[in-house]
C-alpha cells in the first residue's frame, strides 16, 4: 500500500507542543540525515529568539541543574529564633 504513495519527508518546519508546566511551545525544527545510515536522523528544535517559547524553555533549562546549584526556598516551618 505505501509503495503506491509518494510520501514526502518533512525536513524542516514548525512543531507546536504543549508542555504540562510551561504550556504551549512553538519550535522550529530541522531534520539532518546521518551520512551513511539512512535510518538515522538528528532533529534540532529551536524557539524564535525572545519569544514566549524561548522564555519557557529558559525556565525549564534552569531546572536542569543539580539540587546543590538550585536556589533553595526558605524553610517556613523552621523558626530560627527557636
From TrEMBL:
Domain MmyB-like transcription regulator ligand binding, chain residue ranges per copy: 1-60
Signal peptide start-end: none
UniProt xrefs under Pfam families: MLTR_LBD
InterPro entries, A to Z: MLTR_LBD
Domain of life, per lineage: Bacteria
Name of this chain's protein: MmyB-like transcription regulator ligand binding domain-containing protein
Organism of provenance: Streptomyces tibetensis
